Amino acid sequence: MQEHKTIFWDWNGTLLDDTYVCIDAMNVLLRDRKLNELNEVTYRDIFTFPVRDYYAKAGFDFSKEAFEIPAIEFIENYDGMVKTAGIFEDAIETLEAFKREGYTQMILSAMQNEFLNDLVRSHKIDHYFSKISGIEDHYAAGKVDNARKLIAELEGRGGEMIMIGDTIHDHEVGHALGLRVILVCRGHQSEARLRETGRELAHNFKEVIHLVKA
Known about the structure:
Elements: E1 5-9, H1 19-32, H2 40-46, H3 51-58, H4 68-81, H5 91-100, E2 104-112, H6 113-122, E3 131-135, H7 144-154, E4 160-165, H8 168-177, E5 180-184, H9 191-195, E6 200-202, H10 205-213
Parallel strand pairs: 1-2, 1-4, 2-3, 4-5, 5-6
Helix pairs in contact: 1-4
């Protein structure tokens, strides 16, 4: 009998194909401040967690305005644009494949929890997940603490635990909690940056399925 596995899915850039939305929403702020706009390459090269550091790399000067000001503006822009973003086309067949294997699947995200749950439900995939866990605010500081809580709730019944994400922060979550991590190279950070983590890499969910079942 195959060992039980628990999959912790990241949301943005892993299941939800929203990189272009994040770039467009940020470029509105940059134009307003007469700062250089981002393209896909520069975005993937500078995006990071906590996102305050990403804003600084994009050119925001927090001696002139508090981080919370552009952060809230970004969320307002993103909220108005994200309805145009779909989940990756191979997401549902992958969620279904893991469901057939009997794996426990959860979403672990640095997105505000209510906003996250509403988005997941809007794509009609919430039934695949035993838990959908976001953070309390919109400032995307990180998700290690939430991951720790989810693991504690499993009470040792999770089997092999695997984090599937698209950023170095997903690697950091895995490192902090001893999780296996698979990084998908089509989200918010470049393949070159992800490769530096030394983690298993995939370019699509077909490759993810192969790695998880290996």
